[in-house]
Amino acid sequence: MDIEGGIGNLFANASLRRQFGNEWYYVEGDVAKLSKQNTFIGHHIMVPKEGVAIHINAFNFPVWGMLEKIAVNLLAGVPAIVKPASLTSYLTEAVFKEIIASGILPEGSLQLICGSARGILDFCQMQDVVTFTGSAETGRKLKSHPNLLQHSIPFNMEADSLNACVLGDDVKPDMPEFDLFIKEVVREITTKAGQKCTAIRRIIVPESLVEEVTIALGNRIQTTTIGDPAVEGVRMGPLAGLGQRNDVLEKVNELMAVQKLVIGNQDNFEVKGADKTKGAFMSPMIFLNEAPFEQLACHEVEAFGPVSTIIPYKNVDEAITLSKMGKGSLVCSIATASSDTAREFVLGAATMHGRILVINRESAKESTGHGSPMPMLVHGGPGRAGGGEEMGGKRGVLHYMQRTAIQGSPTMITAITKQYQQGAQGTLDGIHPFKKSFDTLQIGDQIVTEKREITSDDIDRFADLSGDHFYAHMKDTQFEGTLFTHQVAHGYFIMSVAAGLFVHSYDINPVLLNYGIDELRFTKPVYPGTSVYVRFTCKEKIDQEVKDDQDIPKGIVKWMVEILDESEEPLVGIATILTMVKK
Question: Is 28 a catalytic residue?
Fold first, then answer.
């Protein structure tokens, strides 16, 4: 899970490169129009921070922790220093050596420190970024480091949390959702011996089903063979070390003082293929808290191992309240077949959770489960969970970049961003842009087309050809009470006319195909007798990789299509079209 999950995460993040274009900086969001005549506009750019990312990782994910974090800082253009937990750093080092030996990274872009790195935060500067994964207590100490505070150094914390899994009050023992709930809880208790920041620590169930849930969990846990993971049939290995086991047992004693142990035993369990007295083995242990609003240990004490607590509730409002009593968690899940229950719970509980998974029969075959953060979704949570977030697709990359607002004329902002801004000065060189290869095209290359008059017969023929006989396009419609005075052209017909005006139609040229249309808007009605024309401009170029020897070297070109009539303002329509253009 740790090794292959980390590599899978890295590959998923690698696919994000196509969303960032060719430049070493990123142009974010939409333009802000700051003046009436559009001579003064604003935008946002993001540039890589000129420091280093320092990743202080937890013992329980020595490979995933490294790969999911470095993926995004490398995409941002920021080097990293990885500091794994000493207990499992030997595995981090083994993978790190393979990365360096592969030669895929520039020298110095990734560095590793195993063992103690006390004092490393003393040397951080304002352009650095520090991330931490581990216990909330350690995280708070690092977050309050005087040097980090003095220089306002970004610090992202992902702390262990008291995650919950809820059984919806609509679910009965004979429903698939009941079985899915039991499987999910047992998997999260036993996978990595429960040493996961996302493991289920609180099992919140309707009070009428406490007995059924306890029996079902007990039956399934009994089939979990504990021992050497290399031995056939073993489903749960030891904890990461004897010290970890001792810490967990100490917390177990705290929980046992106020709760009843209903599944498992500290001493009486079997181990396969190993010596129980020497290894850091532990039986799964499940408690029952019959007074969760008075006995609060299950909401405050985390035994970081195969330990969880069953908590009864009366109604959905109580389930929401109980889920929030963990004071902020990375993930919560609910097993329910009711969309109403799912909606009520998710919206009620969302403020205290970084991610919420809905478990039901529809997604069961493909769901990645409660404990699997996904690279394209944020991972983090409020309060006890650290108050930060990582991953999240493009969002994760932007944590390592500085957002800067830029202001100026459209022509100046175009020059800075290398993305054509509406109203900027175009380049009219007399050569149709479709005759230019990807290499020779320049941002701002432009043509202004001839005009074409739109007739009532045109509109009728398009209605018959497309089958779109919406009343506004029919000349015999009584238009009183509508938005139009008389027959109006279809927006898609006007876009088709625009294509006919700007496409260089007859000669074979570097344009290989039309790739799609984005941001198409019809902004003014076009009536019969109106003449339209197009201002067609190269907006942005995005390089594409050559996949193999047979692949044609090419890139994607975005074009701004501005459709105008005789009045010129406002526009009739606007769109961004994409073409694939040969180099």
Answer: no
